[in-house]
Amino acid sequence: MNDPTLRRTPLFDTHLAAGAKMAGFAGWAMPIRYGSQIDEHHAVRNHAGMFDVSHMTIVDIEGTSTLEFLQHLVANDAGKLKSAGGGLYGVLLNEAGGIIDDVIVYRRDRGYRVVSNAATRDAVMDWYKGRADRFDAVLVEREDVAMIAVQGPEAIARFVDATGLSEVAELKRFHALDVPHKAATWMIARTGYTGEDGIEVMLPARGAPWLWCELAQAGVVAAGLGARDTLRLEAGLNLYGQDMDETTTPLESNLGWTVAFEPADRDFIGRTALEAQRTNGVGNKLTGIALEDRGVMRHGMKVITEAGEGEVRSGIFSPTLGYSIGLARVPRAATGEVGILIRGRERRGRIVRPPFVAKKR
């Protein structure tokens, strides 16, 4: 792939050498698959796989009022992070309560680190910068940092085998630690986007090819964005731009749990709109749908329910389950059996509660 308009991660040459099928994604040249997408999916579900997620936006924030800055911008409350190493999932909202992006906030010894999506990089950075001057908050986008996700029921054991960093095995879910390694500092977080156990490693860009190769030698399978999408949807996890965006609120996107309305005096952006929506009620909801007939649900397909029409926001054929699943926005009152229009024909489906596939213990 020689498109000069696409940005390249530090692992670009590594992907090419492995025969990856590359494509443009959010302005980046990214691996879609290396061989069989289905095999990559099953490797993560049953063993361990790794993803290059260096295209994600990583921002370090320091200053005397950094916490207040984050409490104003993020609908969840960063004040819950009482000590370094804690992590918090949340959303950035506009004044109407629409979702600008979803983020993970980590507290560190000095300041905080916030990770957001690649597709929203410009919008999120502008949103930060447009409000940071009201606070003592200094923003540093870490374009010098690569990010590798190691996911699956065997992910931790194989990562320890590859690196010798045994302390990672004791790391709690949604916590992170900074560890010195290879004459640098790595930040390792027990988070991910597959529904399985695993970690996300943020390390200097120059060290990413070495870690990738060591993980491969330890038996971790390289996986592309195709498998990442099927895995996240089986886990019932939203994708920004499909399942949520600036026109939808957390209360309409199965993300009400990410909004901290207490303390009542915390003035986060979008609060007034969400409080009004809580009072007046929500007309639509994002929910899971399992297809009972043959076919595959895709984004934009019409959903017919007894309470009115809706739309598929994300849809795939599930490699684990052997049938199509999706997330759809439908009327709040919709339950039970539904119809999905696939190529002009109505197919039977049912509303189910995500996740579709339970995490392996």
Task: Please explain how this structure is put together.
By secondary structure, the protein is an alpha+beta fold. It has helices at 12-17, 37-46, 66-73, 121-132, 155-163, 208-217, 225-234, 271-280, and strands at 7-8, 21-25, 28-33, 49-52, 57-62, 87-93, 99-107, 112-116, 138-141, 145-151, 176-181, 184-189, 198-204, 221-222, 284-291, 302-305, 308-317, 324-331, 337-342, 345-352. The strands form four sheets. The chain has a six-stranded mixed β-sheet with strand order 11-12-13-10-4-14. It has a six-stranded antiparallel beta barrel with strand order 15-18-17-16-19-20. Helix 5 (155-163) crosses helix 6 (208-217). The longest helix is centred in the middle third of the chain and has 12 residues, at 121-132. The radius of gyration is 21 Å and the shape is globular. It starts with 6 loop residues before the first strand and ends in a 9-residue tail after the last strand.
Core attributes:
single chain, 361 residues, alpha+beta, six-stranded antiparallel barrel, 21% helix
Number of helices: 8
**Fraction of residues in β-strands:** 25-35%
Low-confidence regions: none
Please provide the count of β strands: 20
**Amino- and carboxy-terminal Cα gap:** 39 Å
The dominant shape is globular
Structural class: alpha+beta
Please tell me the overall pLDDT: 97
- Please state how the strands of the largest beta sheet are arranged side by side: 11-12-13-10-4-14
